[in-house]
Amino acid sequence: MEIKEEGTSEEGQHFLPAAQANDPEVIQFTSIQKIPNEPQLEFILACRDLVAPVSDRKLNTVVQISVIHPVEQTLTRYSSTEIVEGTKDPLFLTGVTFPPDYPIYEETRIKLTVYDVKDKSHDTIRTSVLPEHKDPPPEVARSFLGCASFKVGELLKSKEQLLSLSLRTSDGGKVVGTIEVSLVKMGEIEDGDTDHITTDVQGQKCALMYESTAPESLSGKENLPFMNAVLRNPVCKLYRFPTSDNKWMRIREQMSESILSFHIPKELISLHIKEDLCRNQELKELGDLSPHWDNLRKNVLSHCDQMVTMYQDILTELSKETGSSFKSSSSKGEKTLEFVPVNLHLQRMQVHSPHLKDALYDVITVGAPAAHFQGFKNGGLRKLLHRFETERRNTGYQFIYYSPENTAKAKEVLSSINQLQPLIATHADLLLTSASQRSPDSLKSSLKLLSEKTELFVHAFKDQLVRSALLALYTARPGGILKKPPSPNVSTEEKSTQHDTPQLRRQDSIPHHSDYDEEEWDRVWANVGKSLNCIIAKVDKLIERDSHNEEGAGGSSSKDGEADPTLEDSITSHPREDWYEQLHPLILTLKECMGEVVNRAKQSLTFVLLQELAYSLPQCLMLTLRRDIVFSQALAGLVCGFIIKLHTSLHDPGFLQQLHTVGLIVQYEGLLSTYSDEIGMLEDMAVGISDLRKVAFKITEATSNDVLPVLTGRREHYVVEVKLPATVFESLPLQIKEGQLLHVYPVLFNVGINEQQTLAERFGDVSLQESINQENFELVQEYYSIFMEKMPPDYISHFQEQNDLKGLLDNLHQNIQAKKRKNVEIMWLAATICRKLNGIRFTCCKSAKDRTSMSVTLEQCSILRDEHQLHKDFFIRALDCMRREGCRIENVLKNIKCRRYAFNMLQLMAFPKCYRPPEGTYGKADT
Ligand SMILES: O=P(O)(O)O[C@H]1[C@H](O)[C@@H](O)[C@H](O)[C@H](O)[C@@H]1OP(=O)(O)O
């Protein structure tokens, strides 16, 4: 019989060839009845009276679970239990679970093979590097004890949903013990005779009886398809652990990829292309420039065109990856996949514990957003951007220095102009339509909209920057006589730096045209407001006269029955007017005035952008590319985290209120070291995460089957539209339904834990980590203040009763100040604060594979201990179970095709103890 390894092949990822999955003719097997989106089958295992091959040796047992598919009759290795040491009656804490889409039927046969493990450190189970997926030679690590098999249908139909099977030797002859298979329904009472089952902890017994309620849906049924639309290829694991009062809790671990890994980068790159094409066009439309500026513009344009082509090529390549939802750690340096986050997953723990409500704990795990292809020789974004700005500020006479804030402002105004001008034109046309229909009500409402938009338009130019840019452009036109520098709207800080340095000379050399009429712009700009006022006045008059006409026509008369002479006058002097004709010339004037303003402002602000681009080409564009790449990776993770959080908390009114009044905190745990390349990664990551502040979310009602989020905006500000099904959308607070923007507050705390960090602490520099932690602590505090201020008092008083956030914040602050080596307490506290504040949790290292796996499993077990009374003697065993057989070892396998954490002994010695994986799960791996 052919043996396959689950999860290493394409088949492992998709479970069934598509043709078979869709063809009812081929599949004639009995499906397992199940709750939608819940695992199809879950069971736990225990052995009894195992016979040791050598009588004086204590058994260390492990069960390997394999599936015999009824179609192909092939044996697929599916999962394993943990190793239970020193007992002939092992009870396994690691169970077996088959996710919703797994091709399993009542006819499917499950084979259970029991091994005796001789040497744990060599028992690297199911290492896929072995050819033909053969077992490691038994003498090396484990020896076969016995096996048994059953059909899924037999288990489902069995009395008490429990099978007790004899374990036999390979020739099928000798019975070497019994294996018990108990069907599990998460959240349901588990029956069974427990007397014989002991844990491996001396003398301890755990009753298998649950005192629990029926399963409660943790996320609404209606929105499940929406959430599942972004998740792919779930891996599920099941455990049972004892509580401190000797009851059992059940834990389901789930890890899923997200289609957003590719969807968001594609959306974002399309927006970059649109934004850059528009900017290039505006540069072309700058008009005549003097030879110096014209040459500069030509140079900039040729580079910018090349960049657009590059983005287009990347988009084409990414578009070929239809349906992809995972970029492996080994692809992190691939140029065409640079915008895609590394190894992005939702890591979920679902807990069902006695007496407590079922609970979900999510962490998004992802490789630190970083530009791996560009590399880290010169550092990462934090350093590169700082260096770039300093150098730009101090360069010679060729450019006018605009601060990053001013450059951003120029982009913002340009974007407002591009949005508002067509909007105003549309509202103006609607006003004329209302006029031609002679409808006072619709005339009034059209005017209201027109006024609002025109006021926004006028307001957009209320900035000194526009004036200085106009002047700068004027002097750059051919024939400009250059005397005095146009000074951009510099902040006091900038002014002082410039005065302290040779900037004075440089500024002095920048030209000014003596003929420049500084007030001309004011006149042109004010004309827009004036022409709007004329329209308002005219509309008022028309409506007023019309109402008088109506009254007149209706036989208006004074109380005593005599006609009102003034009204009669007005009726006779203003016969029924053509409103359209009255308004048309005024609208034309408004459009003309607006056109004039747009023309001037667009050109001058584009000239500001030219200054930024002209400096240090092509490095400046490469820096933008780097920032775009890092941001794209960070954004894909954020959108995934936001959608998951939204779907799991939709039924919590407090959460919804927090969402629209405060916004959500998004906490990133970084495990990067501040040594060598990882310094650059951390510098990239810090900027990428802080750039996420430019993102806001908006929730809309889904109107089609396309439920993927939609991205709009430009580099300074993005809006992510998240769609919800109509029924769910209807139940949201009004503010959210009305499209209010929902904000996020990203924060990053980093603590390096590996051997590189030891070097950094002994011989290097940890200041980057220290300043990141300090800066981000201030951000958390700021968020907390807004939270306390904006949430309703009754919510806050209940919240304060439940949580000592103030104490946690103080503790975090003290830990940050303490400057202790590898102070992992910082990460634990930050994570706890985030969870208590209903935030979104992230964990990242270089690849989100090894260190991240250690950290999320530790976090999961800590939650079980702190929130669900995990028995203290089982903390390490639970941790080892999760690390040895849980979702994260599958993560390693799917990344590097090898079931082994990439740590060597030396590295592990440097790790804080609770971050070290169990024996036999780590070693040299080809990453
Ligand atoms: O998932 P990571 O912890 O970033 O993986 C590291 C691992 O920690 C380290 O021990 C090993 O030497 C590799 O550098 C891993 O990174 P890869 O990106 O090469 O998987």
From TrEMBL:
Family statement drawn from the similarity comment of this UniProt entry: Belongs to the inositol 3,4-bisphosphate 4-phosphatase family.
InterPro entries reported in the protein's UniProt record: C2_dom, C2_domain_sf, INPP4
Any one GO molecular function term: phosphatidylinositol-3,4-bisphosphate 4-phosphatase activity
Lipid metabolism recorded as keyword: yes
Listed transmembrane segments: none
Keywords: Hydrolase, Lipid metabolism
Region of interest (Disordered), residue spans: 481-516, 546-574
GO CC terms, sorted: cytoplasm
Protein name: phosphatidylinositol-3,4-bisphosphate 4-phosphatase
Keyword Lipid metabolism found: yes
Enzyme Commission number(s) of this protein: 3.1.3.66
Domain C2 per the UniProt entry, residue ranges: 20-165
Pathway: Signal transduction; phosphatidylinositol signaling pathway
Catalytic reaction equation(s): 1D-myo-inositol 3,4-bisphosphate + H2O = 1D-myo-inositol 3-phosphate + phosphate
Biased composition (Basic and acidic residues): 492-515
